[in-house]
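An instance as discussed:

___
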Amino acid sequence: MLSKTIKVLKNNIRILKDIFRTTKKKKIQVIKEIIKYKKKYEINIEDYLSFQFYNMEEDQIATFFTYQMNNKLIDKSNEKSKKYIFNDKELFDIIFDDYLGREWISNKSISYEEFAEFIENKEFLFYKKVNGSRGIGAKRIDILAYNGDIERLYNDIKALDKGIVEEHIVAHKDINKICDTGLSTIRVVTLNQNGKCKILHGVFMIINGDIVNCEVTGGGLSACINVHTGIVETDAVDVKRNFYETHPISGEKIKGFQIPYWEEVVQLVNKIYDKVPGINYVGWDIAITEDGPIVIEGNASWPSHRIWQIPYLREKRGKKQEMKQKLAES
């Protein structure tokens, strides 16, 4: 408990330093605003920075679905004792294996013989820590770089922190036209509402250069998707809140892009939204392959409230009202 408190404190100090560097306001004014907005609009310090509340009027800030609002929805929707299922990537893959569309192994329990069979006819592998988040520690492994030395590859993978190793996923050709330097994915946020799947939000998380994580915090770009049509309806935004009409590498237009297999994406989340009883509010990360959508992972501890509002920051308006309307619908 103490270590968690210290970690949160250090993170808040880091964010506060970022705010002081970013805004031209006096430090005491910034601190007063954060305290005021926390009480009045249920924000936290990261909201203040991420949503650029330091550049907004209060009537604009009031339009955002904020940290404490999101936390209340998580607490109401997701049983605390069940969240570990989504935080443990190995356990998650066991439960959702039918929807993963790829082979995977545990790096700690697999034998050399099983590993040698697993990598046959593969050029790349993807490793991620069993309890990792935001792509921290994840890596792409080039099998061919080992020049046939399977034992060295096996030992290197065994030496990594406990995690899972998956076969490399190749995105749909239309997704790769936007950028093919890595895997771009879709975040679909669902709510189990009275036994029915409600799709709250869709976000196109676009890879941007030689990175592992396509999320904004990992160096990627995000753009919002119309959940009824699967068409991207905003420009993309990066972690520094720069906006892009076209992808900075490929030059491909982002707004108006049709996500392939969108109907199948909707069908997929309708199959899995209630697979873990007691977990009702989830942000699903889904990859689109040539054969259709597959599940990458699910986020139950933190489905996120920022990722689907940040692409609208230029308008200085949030999605609180739309979110409340969706939550009120039966």
